[in-house]
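Sat 14:20. Reprocessing the chain from the morning session after the first attempt stalled halfway. Input below, unchanged.
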Amino acid sequence: IPKKLVTTVSGCADDALAGVVACNPGLRLLQGHRVVLRDDLQAIRGRVALLSGGGSGHEPAHAGYVGKGMLTGVVAGTMFASPSVGSILAAIRAVAQAGAAGILLIVKNYTGDRLNFGMALERARAEGTDVRMVVVGDDCAFTKPGKAGRRGICGTILIHKVAGALAEEGASLDEVEKKAMAAAKVMGTLGLSLSPCSIPGSKPSFQLAEDEMELGLGIHGEAGVRRMKMLPADKAVETMLKHMMDPSSASHLSVTPGSSVVLVVNNLGGLSCLELGIVAGAAVRCLENQGIRIARALVGSFMTAMEMAGVSLTLMLVDEELLRLIDAKTMAMAWPNILAGPATTRREEVPAPIEPPRKPEDETGTGLSMARVERVLQRVCSTLLDMKEKLNELDRGAGDGDCGHTHAQAAQAIQEWMRSRPPPAAPAQLLSSLADVVLAQMGGSSGVLYGLFLTAAGQSLRGRSDSAAWADAMDAGIEAMQRSVPGDVEPQCPLGIPVPPEFPCIPHRYGGAAPGDRTMLDSLFAAGQALHSLRSPGADPLQVLAAAVQSAEAAAEATRHMEAGAGRASYVHSSRLEQPDAGAVAVAAVLGAVLE
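Finished this time. Tokens:
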């Protein structure tokens, strides 16, 4: 049974609603019922009231859409279960007694919801209350929907918004009902999942293989129309939109070039925000390529299925009137309060800033052989590319597992740089140029640290070509990686509160590491100590370099037994760090490639 962070399984629906109400001063619970109402019920006197609801487990639906400009109230059931007739009737009575000029129930097309809301409607009418019901069925999954009809899924929130804006403007119940029904007929939704979902205390409702995804499933984990092999995001989006707009399907949405639509990219609960952004971009691009105008795009978690790793796409065909209602202001907390405007992947980019011209560097002394420089750099790059997976594996113990990726990124950037121009032969210019490349392209903390090292080492080499200069350059680079903030400025708190020097959240140093902290610095420092022999008269540079490589390799291996004192690994208990530090291993490999 999957883990869930709940207090009790039986009380999770009530606890979730209580938490939402506790944190939102515009909401109130209806005593004795799982019903959330607007705090300002007096404001609906003489206006149409809107009620919706359904099972819990779809948060932020449905309580997230209660507020001025959207719903007056919602009725929640237990997990994935329709609310009771008694609670629905209590909500209807509460808003009727507050003076509502008619009540519209907005219901998703599920048998339980239709039955319970329908029975409450009949009982309320028998009491003399003017109540209507709009049933939303926006699911485009089934080419031949059965007797139950199309399921109501994420598109329902757009009906909440359209009806809510009309009610806020003072429209009559007849008008709100008519326009809500019309809007429901010009939209469609389709879901795609990479994983199942589960309610607290229960096993997942279905299983998907590691290489499978399911098209067209419901928001309770009901079966979809097709299981297929995993696709890249852009191909998955193309498949979804093609299915939604397929004229041979009885549940398709007819969207033609020149149409204007509102697009909703909905996280079904467990998809990362990164993946959601990729899907959103792919959807906008795919629609644009078909000549469809995306008048508005809403991206986020709007109607979920617990922790399901999946996404649904909703399209609503809009004219100026519908778009005005979508744009109308609302206080509902789950509706995205963003600048209204069309979505496009063709938005003009801000021009890149112009780099100031570099001062020409005066280089004296003997330069390196260009052919030799290129050979060495190619060996270094090949070594790092070959080690990518090994470095990632070593780095996983520290949490993120990206060390190989960042070093491979640097290697590819250096290769591209060498293809675009010959590397400088002067050592100082060479290291300075390499610093620019890694700072621009490598990313991560490694990119900054290598950039600091190469910049300082390059500056130390200016005007020098003797062997001892390389020992000095190594020391300068290492010192730069540990250096205090420029001018040794004391850390400052943004609020002006004095910060003690030992305060851990305000670093005094760029890198902050020292030898023995289980970082790349351990290999560099060991190699630097060995290079000091270059200062001795008659020292053989190749022998000294070979000794430096051996020292770096030994230091990298020694990190296996060190307690991490800096970097991301310092947050991981030492007993879990069973491998040598990935950064230290990478440095030793780079030095070894230079020697070959």
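The domain at 12-198+212-327 is CATH 3.40.50.10440 (Rossmann fold).
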